[in-house]
Amino acid sequence: MNRPHVGKRRATPPAPAATDPNQERERVLGTLRPYSEAWWAVYDEIEAERDKQLGTKLVICPRCVQPRQDEDVTGSIR
Q1: Is the pTM of this model over 0.85?
Q2: Is the CB of residue 21 less than 8 Å from the CB of residue 49?
Q3: pLDDT reported for residue 20
Q4: Residues in the chain with pLDDT < 70?
Q5: Local structure of residue 8 (DSSP, 8 states)
Q6: How far apart are CA 43 and CA 49, in angstroms?
């Protein structure tokens, strides 16, 4: 049987992984005195970045955000 020659495919190099901005902050956090003013400043930056990342991934359906007309706006149970 004669098979057609199959050339080698050249794989494209993978895209560089996005660096985690919090990686360096967490390293610095470990060097600071726990609960000091500087520690809290770095900790708050880490939390803000985590919230930002979550905000880009979190999807809430429009129906869940806007109350329906037949529902109590506060969502109270009668």
Answers
A1: no
A2: yes
A3: 86
A4: 1-18, 67-78
A5: P
A6: 10
